Amino acid sequence: MHCVEEIKNGIYWVGCNDFRTELFERIFPLPQGVTYNTYFFDDEKTCLIDAMDKSCRDEFLEDVEYLLKGRKLDYFVIQHMEPDHASSALALLEKYPEAKIVGQPSTFKLFEQFFRHPMPDRYMTVNEGDQLKLGKHTLQFIKAPMVHWPEVIMTYDVTDHVLFSADAFGHFGTVGNVFADQADFEENYLDEARRYYVNIVGKYGPQVMNVLKKASKLPIDVICPLHGFVFRTPETIKYIVDKHLHWAQYVPEKKGVVIAFSSIYGNTERAACVLANKLSRRGVRDIRMYDVAKVHPSFVTAKAWEYSHLILAAPTYNLNLFLPMENFLHDLKTLMFQKRTIGIVACHSWASAAYKTMADYVENEFKCCEILEPTMDLKSSLRDDQECLMDELADKMAESIEQYPDPNTLI
Ligand code: FEO
Question: CB of 9 within 8 A of CB of 158?
Answer without folding.
Answer: no
